[in-house]
Amino acid sequence: MATRSVCQVFQRRFASAAASLRASPAEIRSQRNAIFSREQARQRALYPRIEKIEVSMHGPGLDGTLLIMNKGMSTPLSCARHLTEYHVKNSTLALVDGEPWPLHQPLTQSCSLTLLTFKDNDPTLVNQAYWRSCAALLGQVMETAFKDEYTVELLSTPEVPVISGAFCCDVVLDPQLDSWTPSEESLRSLTRGAQKLIHQDQAWEPLEVVPSVALEVFSHSRCKQEEVEQKASQSPKGTVMLYRCGDHVLLSGGPLVARTGLCSQYEVTALHNLGQGSWGLHRRVQGLSLPLQLQAHHTVWRKLRQRAEKLVDAPVPEAVAAAPEVTNPPDSTQPPTSQ
């Protein structure tokens, strides 16, 4: 018994020492930002001289329009600024030589360019990018919602179609929060955090990097490092795509829309327990949103919200699927948020 007590004391001391050595969430965000900025500057320096490229525009009223832009510097958004205010405000994504392309990603060769909006005849690609962006925004909110003494690990974001009724992101919260059940006020607090980012109209800056850079960015997260390795192995070029929104750097499996301000109605609707997994208690946070150009009456929104509260049918990691679901106690508590 005495030996067990001594072991417990040492375990507590080692755990306390590890916690004191662990970087704070603010320090981690700062480091990720610094690495992102360094790599962004390095890539821009690859084009020391201004070289011109030809961009052939396509779309309603644009066929035959030819723009002369700067290689490695000009982006699809730069091209939109040479057209009309409508194209600047409503463009969400681009097609470059037929491939989806973020509006803020530089063009590196002469190409054909189509600007996409939510009101196109076929908005499939835009809707997919929008849903993915809403999930990215939700992850950013979750990462910064809690006090610094609580860790938040963002897991890989499930790719779910718009018809699923809700976008989602999977997270593991600090073990101290395993028994926490979010109240309606907690969800409203998270919603306010998202709306603040939307109001700031921050850009999602894309940066295509080799795996070694991404591994350095996510050096504090073994979970993200595994995701980097997986995505790199699936990429034809062996690269991965990072995005930065404000001070938040994320890994994305597909293109995001241009900016947070394209979101309009946005609400965090639910947080579901998925069970114990490789990294702890896995949870799925869900939300609902409509873009600025598409508004819904409050009665329609209420019905959509009710649907968005139900657990999204998305693939669950095997380690989680095999584990029994953890049932939270019935009493809800207020979240230990920093807001």
TrEMBL record:
Single GO term (MF): nucleotide binding
Domain of life: Eukaryota
Gene3D superfamilies per the UniProt record, alphabetical: 3.10.20.30, Threonyl-trna Synthetase, Chain A, domain 2
UniProt keywords, alphabetically: Mitochondrion, Ribonucleoprotein, Ribosomal protein
Location, primary (coarse class): mitochondrion
GO cellular component terms listed in the entry, alphabetical order: mitochondrion; ribonucleoprotein complex; ribosome
Keyword Ribonucleoprotein in annotation: yes
Record's subcellular location: Mitochondrion
Region (Disordered): 318-339
Biased composition (Polar residues): 329-339
Family the entry assigns: Belongs to the mitochondrion-specific ribosomal protein mL39 family.
Protein name per the record: Large ribosomal subunit protein mL39
Organism (species): Stegastes partitus
